[in-house]
């Protein structure tokens, strides 16, 4: 069942702004559509890369992802680091990379809306890679895998496909929130193993939230040392003045 003040993250990568606009729309609707009378559901929206680096991969049990492909199936702005994360998961699944294992994302459920242009043969490669990597790591998908084609060759315009997917996803999201939540340890493990995985494949990676507490500790210790030095100098100088 939904617990009080449960949070849903809406994560996106966007090259032209369409995925970003859809993500913000979903985020704005979530509290009204998914908050039962006994509790409150909140939502936040951010880039997929910011989720890893600024949010410290703080997985919630339900995330909504909106992301396009760019160029020849590459990740768009705000999702390039996350794509590398997903590519590495699939390499390890397929035995192409022998180092370590992929993180466990058991306990995480995601909904995914992908955008692209089918004039390009790789138009859905990036959303597909994200989907396959998350499921390979143990996450479950909620609802239909959305495919919003911008080519104009289908039955509906891309904007209409996006609207239909958004309108049709709420029952699936509500089912996730009404189910028994995963153990807190499962989400902690997903976060911790994502940290370790990213530190392994991105040597320069430094998740802000993980290190914030350490920074506070270092600052506190520094303050204590400075205070002790000041007291020492006070007594020494005071002794000299006598």
UniProtKB/TrEMBL annotation:
Residues of the Flavodoxin-like domain:
8-170
TM regions (residue ranges): 216-240
Its lineage opens with: Eukaryota, Sar, Stramenopiles, Ochrophyta, Bacillariophyta
UniProt entry keywords in alphabetical sequence = Flavoprotein, Membrane, Transmembrane, Transmembrane helix
Kindly provide the name given to this protein in its UniProt entry.
Flavodoxin-like domain-containing protein
One Pfam short name: Flavodoxin_1
């Amino acid at each position: 069942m939904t617990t009080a003040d449960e949070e849903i993250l809406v994560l996106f990568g966007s090259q032209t702004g369409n995925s970003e606009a859809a993500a913000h729309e979903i985020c704005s609707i979530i509290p009204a559509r998914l908050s039962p009378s006994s509790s409150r559901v909140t939502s936040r929206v951010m880039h997929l890369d910011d989720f890893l680096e600024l949010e410290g991969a703080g997985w919630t049990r339900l995330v909504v992802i909106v992301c396009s492909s760019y160029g020849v199936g590459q990740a768009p702005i705000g999702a390039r680091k996350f794509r590398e994360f997903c590519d590495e998961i699939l390499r390890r699944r397929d035995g192409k990379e022998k180092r370590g294992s992929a993180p466990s994302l058991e306990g995480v459920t995601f909904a995914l809306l992908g955008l692209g242009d089918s004039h390009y043969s790789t138009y859905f490669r990036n959303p597909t890679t994200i989907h396959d990597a998350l499921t390979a790591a143990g996450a479950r998908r909620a609802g239909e895998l959305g495919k919003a084609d911008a080519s104009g060759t289908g039955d509906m315009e891309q904007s209409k496909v996006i609207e239909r997917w958004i309108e049709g996803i709420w029952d699936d999201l509500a089912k996730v929130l009404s189910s028994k939540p995963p153990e807190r340890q499962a989400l902690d493990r997903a976060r911790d193993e994502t940290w370790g995985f990213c530190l392994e494949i991105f040597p320069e990676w430094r998740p802000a939230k993980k290190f914030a507490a350490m920074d506070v500790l270092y600052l506190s210790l520094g303050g204590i040392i400075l205070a002790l030095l000041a007291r020492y100098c006070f007594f020494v100088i005071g002794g000299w003045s006598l």
